[in-house]
Amino acid sequence: MDWQEVEPTPEGRQWWDRGSVRRDRDGFLSVLSRYTPQTDADTPTLGKLYVMQIDCDQNIFRDKQVNGLPRWRAQWEPAGGDGLIERVIDAVCRADLA
Questions:
Q1: How far from the centroid of its chain's Cα atoms is residue 75's Cα?
Q2: Residue 54's CB: how many other CB atoms inside 10 A?
Q3: pLDDT digits over 60-82, tens only?
Q4: In sequence order, what are the beta bridge partners of 42?
Q5: Do residues 89 and 95 make contact, with C-beta atoms less than 8 angstroms apart?
Q6: Distance CA 49, CA 95 (A)
Q7: pTM to 2 decimals?
Q8: Burial, 28: exposed, middle or buried (Cβ in 10 Å; 0-12, 13-18, 19+)?
């Protein structure tokens, strides 16, 4: 795994695995990402693992799996002002062009 952290926000921290970036059969990017919400120092949390599908042309995403469980019929959605997701989409799409 080659975890790349994006700039944290007050909501938490997020990483994406450079080694997991793949183009799927529909032409979208797929990537493994990890999110850990911001908590008090006294309250550790494990966070969650996601398999995100990204449409770089439209700047939208959907979570295909959360902690290994499939999300059937996951809907496409914009990052919606979520700085972490915006940064992951940007980083993954730029990495695919490199």
A1: 15
A2: 26
A3: 999 999 999 999 999 999 988 88
A4: none
A5: no
A6: 20
A7: 0.88
A8: buried
Structure tokens at 60: 């939208």
The domain spans of the chain are: 3-97
Q: What is the sign, positive or negative, of the torsion defined by CA atoms of 50, 21, 15, 7?
A: negative
H-type alpha helices, the chain: 83-97
SS3 (DSSP) at 85: helix
Helix count and strand count (H, E) for the chain: 1, 8
- CA–CA gap between residue 92 and residue 8 (Å, rounded): 16
**From CA 78, how far away is CA 66, in angstroms rounded?**
18
Using CA atoms, how far residue 3 sits from 29, 71, 96, in Å, is: 17, 23, 15
What is the rounded distance in angstroms from the CA atom of residue 46 to the CA atom of residue 58?
31
pLDDT digits (tens, 9 = 90+) for 22-49: 999 989 999 999 999 887 666 667 789 9
Which string of DSSP letters, residue by residue, matches 24-59?
Answer: -TTS-EEEEEEEEE---TTS----EEEEEEEETTTT
